[in-house]
Amino acid sequence: MSLKIDQDHSRFRHIVRGKIRQNLRKYISKGELIGRQGQETVSIPIPQIDIPRFRFADKQQGGVGQGEGKPGDALSSPSPGDGKGKAGGDPGEHVLEVDVTLEELADILGEELELPNIEVRGKSSIIDQKDRYVGIRRVGPDSLRHFRRTFRSALRRQIALGTYDRDRPVIIPTREDMRYRSWKTEEEPVTNAVILYMMDVSGSMGDEQKEIVRIESFWIDTWLKRQYKGIETRFIIHDAVAREVDRDTFFRTRESGGTMISSAYKLAAQIIEHDYPSTEWNIYPFHFSDGDNWSVDDTLLCVELLRDQLLPASNVFSYGQVESPYGSGQFIKDLKEHFKGHDGLITSEIRDRDSIVGSIRDFLGKGR
Fold it and tell me: What is the pTM of this model?
């Protein structure tokens, strides 16, 4: 019975996984999963799956096997309707919410977008402890008892004492026969990563542009957390001046004024140099803007900071340009001109929510 239940549960999870994959692009573009995120799982509404279950009617309602009747009586067909009701135009509601772990969600994302696993670099200072079974000993808890070794020891003892009967091969272990697995705790450094999100919050970046950044960063986080055991996230906002903030401030702040992108790049370079040496950390800066910078001179300063500090330290530097009716969109053109053919810089144009899927593939599709 337990095996049957496990098989049914596995089959159900397979169906759920298929439904999530089928609707993944809708989930990504609408961002409806973010508000349903728990600590380790996401609650996902799955349409068109209904769990079969018994439904009990009122005892007085009548039906097959109820009321008066004799053996052999024919069952009466249901009485026809009067046909006066209006046809419904809406589909029936068959929506089931299932909890999916972020690891499962990342796997589905990787399969759908054909994302390669990341080739990590460096080791961090974080130490992970693992227990490994390395041998057998005579004492230990019952949960670690080694069944085969215990009975082998008992068999040898009974043969040596002459009490073993081949016709009645009953083996009864004694306390001296008990064998237990022994373990050893080993420490090893864990490959670690940091994500630096930078966002232009000048007046031309409206609520819709920030929502696009919020949705895309959720999926980027989900994928990178699947690739690394330990991951840190830092947030920088900038207009003419940059400052580090928490996640909530990053997505909810309302700013205005001019834009100097170099201020964000300077702060990012300082954070990396101070907290995340590139020999020990996998570093992923993501910058989102509408591409409207203050001046040509500031753009040239950004190019210098990228070339001399940010690109050498990063696994890859990703720039996403969110289309805004108020932004010029010039910055991405300047980056493409100065870093043509440079595989350490990835640029992506995000025109609307439907472009988020393609942008994620642009950023994560190289497996760096």
Answer: 0.65
